[in-house]
Design brief:
Radius of gyration: 26 Å
Structural class: mainly alpha
Oligomer: single chain
Strand content: under 5%
Number of domains: 2
Largest sheet: none
Shape: elongated
Order of helices and strands: HHHHHHHHHHH
């Protein structure tokens, strides 16, 4: 019988064929864990288990703990990533630039603020942590009152011709008044990302109307409020 002259392909070394998984640099691995943790906690809340998070990442739980020794460490890093790292240094100057009308300043501020915060993961993590009694929310509220609402109170006083905050300290009722518009606009994001209800796509128009009503109303009753104080 004639031998088959067809040449067979040489055998492939399976060990060489299987390309080894590329190891990420420590800083890249850490950021990968944080990014996925943001998505994970937005979906599951902070009650989500790190074992499941590790599975999603395709890593072992011990490796996850090498970067974040405790679940609390990871939660704190997620808080920094979602809340603190999204603050803009321009917000303060934007709110206090009295060369521009207050209406325009507030509209521009909420346009920028909403882009950074009214997002799926931001809203859901905020709501989950609030329901669980997390201190993160209280910490963030203090930041909002100090860096956003207090300057807004000062600018509203100037707009209404009232004493400066140096002449007369801001009262809680003033902060609560500002919280009404701030919380009302925030509820737009809750309706969108939590309730998945129908919302207007023209958020800028919503902000403009809300700000105009707030300014007009504040000026209309400012003299009365000042007298009652």
């Amino acid at each position: 019988m004639r031998k088959d002259s067809t040449k067979r392909p040489p055998k492939t070394d399976e060990k060489k064929a299987a390309a080894p998984r590329r190891r990420l640099r420590a800083v890249n691995r850490e950021q990968q864990i944080v990014d996925e943790a943001v998505n994970f906690f937005a979906e599951k809340g902070f009650s989500g288990q790190t074992r499941e998070l590790a599975t999603r990442l395709g890593i072992t739980q011990p490796l996850l703990y090498r970067y974040f020794p405790t679940k609390r460490d990871l939660i704190e890093r997620v808080f920094d990533e979602v809340y603190l790292n999204r603050e803009s240094p321009d917000w303060s100057s934007l709110l206090t630039d009295r060369s521009r009308p207050l209406h325009d300043r507030l509209c521009d501020f909420y346009g920028s603020y909403s882009e950074m915060t009214y997002r799926y993961e931001w809203i859901r993590i905020y709501m989950f942590s609030a329901l669980m009694g997390e201190k993160l929310n209280r910490r963030y509220i203090k930041i909002v009152e100090k860096k956003i609402l207090t300057p807004m109170c000062a600018e509203l006083r100037d707009y209404c011709g009232q004493p400066t905050i140096e002449e007369k300290p801001i009262r809680q009722i003033e902060l609560d008044h500002i919280w009404v518009i701030h919380g009302g606009l925030f509820y737009y994001a809750i309706r969108k990302h939590i309730y998945h209800s129908r919302v207007s796509k023209d958020f800028a128009a919503i902000v403009s109307r809300a700000v105009a009503v707030m300014l007009a109303g504040s000026k209309a009753v400012s003299a009365e409020l000042e007298t009652n104080d």
